Amino acid sequence: MSNPQGxxxxxxxxxxxxxxxxxxxxxxxHGAPPLPGNPPQHGAPGxxxxxxxxxxxxxxxxxxxxxxxxxxxGVVGGVLLLAVVGVLILVNIVNGxxxxxxxxxxxxxxxxxxxxxxxxxxxYLDPALHEQLTKEDFIAGIKTLEMDSTCKTAYNEVKAxxxxxxxxADIAGLITCDGDKKIDLIYRFEGTDELKMINIKLKPQA
Length: 206
Fold this sequence. Notes:
- It is a single chain.
- Helix content is 36%, strand content 21%.
- It is elongated and about 85 Å long.
- By secondary structure, it is an alpha+beta fold.
- The longest helix has 51 residues.
């Protein structure tokens, strides 16, 4: 078959442009051309490039900046820790005072319900209240309530506080006995080192 395009012509390779020779260290030394896609690297002597992630230029933060950051974080963490500890201490103090006040009210109520009013008077009433209420009147008043072993105490409110070094506790509740007998109670304790009762109210509900 004949070729309408004419005889086959061999393709001649493209000639690379001549490079200057005789300069040591240049890519064109001995007439060797540089490879395509790899241009010569230029830059000032002693200067190195730094690449970050994905080949992008990156730069490490100075060590001094990192030190300041850790110092700030440490100070903030210390302040938060002190705040948490302070709250926990305050909660423990309040809970401790409240539990102590409830314990005093429980012990006093058990004595008067059991009929041991003399001991309740001596151990729990403040000397200032002794001056207002004699032991005889106190014992006689407790007897009129006619409480017995069926009576149980429940507290509706227990508050403890401290002001100017003086501790105080206010307790309010109800003594319930068989036969639908109900007695309102209100106690107030005060003191610096030891809490003593300065006010008492035990009154049957109408």
